Amino acid sequence: MIENDRFLRALRRQPVDRTPVWMMRQAGRYLPEYRASRAKAGDFMSLCRNPELCCEVTLQPIERYGLDAAILFSDILTIPDAMGLGLRFVEGEGPVFDRPVRDAHAIEALGVPDPETELRYVMDAVRAIRGALGHRLPLIGFAGSPWTLATYMVEGGGGSDFTRIRRMGYDEPVALDNLVAKLAAAVSLYLEAQVRAGADALMIFDTWGGVLAPVEYLQFSLEPMARIVEHLKRVAPEVPVILFTKNGGQHLEAMAETGCDALGVDWTTDLGNARARVGSKVALQGNLDPAWLLARPERIETAVARVLASYGPGPGHVFNLGHGILQQTPPEHAAAMIEAVRALSPEYHKT
Ligand code: CP3
Fold first, then answer.
1. Over the Cα atoms of the chain, what is R_g?
2. DSSP string of 69-80?
3. pLDDT at 148 over 90
4. Distance between alpha carbon 29 and the CA centroid of its chain, in Å?
5. Out of 87, 238, 262, 268, which residue is the most buried by the measure of CB atoms under 10 Å away?
6. Which atom of ligand 1 is nearest to the CA of 38?
7. How many CB atoms lie under 10 A from the CB of residue 117?
């Protein structure tokens, strides 16, 4: 049993003493101790491939803030890298693939990586973190959604307007269906292996689902995520699964139908409105605008109060940012947010 199980209880919509809190990208460049570990590793992928350093950086925000969950330190692009696309992180440019996937033939040739061999370094990191955490805190494992992975694989990197892959969806829908189906199989095995290695909860990051028209969202993003949830509920029914489509506010009802346990909500959707639409079906995680953490710390408490009030009383809320913490965030501002959640949230859990 996990000693601090607030996060797992909230995902199951069970009563808690206060709202649990963690932050997307909580281990990252805004922390000086992360920058020191990354310098030791040399570069980002070398850090991801070193289980001991992964463990060290995973624990840094836990030690600094006392959060209610740890998240595996890794990246969503480990799967396409293991598929042979040749991942590099270019300073100031983000991820780049040397061999992007541009046609049906290239998609046909892709294999589904075996998590315990080709992605062994990730599973070793999960085992190392589990060992270091003991039973103190839950550990979140994660993967990218098939659609989000496909955007990087087809475009060859990030930061574009996704015209190549959107065109593929219109010109060659069968090819794109094959790509996301193959990725759904890969993500299913990868997340299942993370559970075997010691993850207590799982999150699927669909960072770019929100760029699709509704019909294509259902086809290329939600449907493959639903297949992953179905797989996980068969092999590990006790492990809560969180789905997060950034800018997916209009799709929350459809997302809740997948059988997942919780939905990540970004700051462009009102949390109270989201709860009214899906609240008895799933828990909700979010949704403070990460830019709030650039504001003066004395202002941050009012923002936290608003998010808590918007969700309202009762269980089923995990406090988080609406997307990853920004690199330029002063670490003390994150502390002010966490402090405010601790101080203000017990009020919402009195029976
Ligand atoms: O939340 C956590 O603390 C766990 C670690 C984590 C990272 N990436 C570490 C990371 C998680 C969950 C991710 C997911 C991820 N990676 C997503 C989905 C979530 C999201 O933010 O929308 C995406 C789209 C990626 C792909 C990716 N990896 C990008 C676009 C970048 C930024 C590139 C850049 O140079 O700005 C990365 C690199 C990355 N992943 C960093 C970290 C801490 C920064 C790398 C560094 O140290 O230079």
1. 19
2. -EE----TTHHH
3. yes
4. 17
5. 262
6. 47
7. 9
Answer yes or no: pTM beyond 0.70.
yes
CA atoms of 332 and 119, how far apart (whole Å) = 35
- In the three-class reduction of DSSP (H, G, I as helix; E, B as strand; rest coil), residue 60 is classed as helix
pLDDT digits over 216-229, tens only? Answer: 999 999 999 999 99
Residues pairing with 21 in the sheet: 319
Mean pLDDT in residue range 302-330 = 98
Q: Which of 9, 13, 18, 25 is catalytic?
A: 25
Reading the block at residue 136, the tokens are 């103190």
- H-type alpha helices, 92-162: 104-109, 120-133, 146-155
| Three-state SS at 168 | helix
pLDDT, tens only, 189-208: 999 999 999 999 999 999 99
CB contact burial 287-313 (16+ within 10 A = b; e otherwise): bbbbebbeeebeebbebbbebbebbee
Alpha carbon 77 to its chain's center: 12
CA 11 to chain centre: 14
Confidence check: pLDDT of 340 > 90 = yes
Q: Give the count of beta carbons closer than 10 Å to the beta carbon of residue 218.
A: 14
- The one-character DSSP state at 81 is I
271: which residues sit within 8 A by CB, 6+ positions away?
265, 284, 286, 287, 307, 310, 311, 317
DSSP 37: H
Catalytic, 75? Answer yes
- According to DSSP, the β-strands at 87-90 and 94-97 are antiparallel
What pLDDT was estimated at residue 1?
85
299 and 293 Cβ atoms separated by less than 8 Å: no
In the structure, which protein residues have their CB atom closer than 6 angstroms to any atom of ligand 1?
24-29, 38, 44, 71, 73, 75-77, 89, 94-95, 142, 144, 158, 205, 207, 324
The structural domains of the chain, with segments of one domain joined by +, span: 1-20+270-351
pLDDT confidence of residue 351: 75
Burial code (b: 16+ CB inside 10 Å, e: under 16) for 157-172 equals bbeeebeebbebbeee
* In the predicted structure, residue 279 carries a pLDDT above the cut 90: no
